[in-house]
Amino acid sequence: MRSFHRRRNCLTFALLLTSASAWSSFFALGKVSAESHPLAKSESSLNELSKVQEEFGVKPTDAKHDSVWHNVPGLSGWMLNVPATEAATRQARDQKLHLVWNSALPKVSLKMLPADSIYRGSPGEKSVTLMINVSWGEEYLPKMLETLHKENVRATFFLDGAWVKSHLQMARHIVEEGQDVGSHGTGHPDFKTLTEDRLARQLDVTNTILNTRLGVQCSLIAPPSGSYDGRLVRLAADRHMHVILWTADTIDWKKPQPDVILARVRNHLTPGALILMHPTRSTAEALPQLIRMVRDKGYTLKTVTDVVEEKPSVKPPETLALHPGGLK
Fold it and tell me: CB within 10 Å: which end of the chain, N or C, has fewer?
């Protein structure tokens, strides 16, 4: 998705060039009634609002099944509510357009697809997600949480139930920081080797731990080491959960240098990428640079919950102000 700030600079309205007298009277609200001023009836002003939709509106992206990436969630878009924009602008009287946006849902949403695992988010916007699997490495979490807090980033922490019970204070701190939380099972078993009863217990026991200890209603499961089969997909779907894998693996558990982690992320930086990491010294040291690199390349960051709920990470501008060069 193009940056809204960049697009804003590119949008030079005819508000100052076309129908200038109409827009002048539009903002002279004390002299013109709501029924007669040009925003209510001027075709040219309505055309300008159409340009706002064209420049800043976003079409929704449908969810789909992919032979490589399995289920790829959709993405809601944004549609300008013209009547509400007109009303809000009339009421404000501050030489600005006050834009009211409605969410535009995809025609095909994730919940309409047959259950399957998810390896990436929608390519419909330039966003990525940080996934942090936690079964160990608690000594590095404070520094990582400090970085996320400072950078105003929400990641998704997939927590092992046994780890939560052993490190309850740290687990609660993750939740208190407003981070997204999912399940990583309990005890880090290989899900593919478990009987179906034991696999179901992995989901249920871990969900109970996350709910009773942390107050989290879990809808996400990241299988340890990415090992799973169709039984997990089916059992998770029965519990209204999504099986989450990854697009880019930092392989940080091998303790590479921070610049290696940065290079691995850079090489797989694509719209919708789910970036897997763990609490290690290398990751804690690389995280500030990683976030800056992602943002410098024009990406935003969102959670896995945002991904499966098909929520966009950026909203169009709420106001556009007139100035000599156009709108800003």
Answer: C
241 — pLDDT class (breaks 50, 70, 90): very high
| Lowest-confidence segment of 49-53, 111-115, 122-126 by average pLDDT | 49-53
Band of pLDDT at residue 2, cut at 50, 70 and 90? very low
Look up residue 7 and give its two tokens.
């697009």
Please answer whether residues 328 and 320 qualify as being in contact, where contact means their C-beta atoms are separated by less than 8 angstroms: yes
The partner residues of 326 in beta bridges, in order of sequence, read: 323
Residue 36's Cβ-count burial label (10 Å; 0-12, 13-18, 19+) is exposed
User: Residues near 28 by Cβ (< 8 Å), separated by ≥ 6?
Assistant: 37
Tokens representing 11? 């949008």
At position 254, the amino acid (one-letter code) is: K
- Are residues 218 and 308 in contact, defined by beta-carbon separation less than 8 angstroms? no
Q: Which residues, 6+ apart, have CB-to-CB distance to 206 below 8 Å?
A: 160, 161, 183, 184, 185, 186, 218, 221
Domains and CATH numbers, the chain: 4-67+75-107+314-327 (no CATH), 112-308 (3.20.20.370)
Contact 99, 327 (CB under 8 A): no
The span from the CA of 89 to the CA of 101, in Å, is: 13
Strands 101-104 and 77-80: antiparallel
Predicted TM-score of the model (pTM): 0.85
Average predicted confidence (pLDDT) for the chain: 87
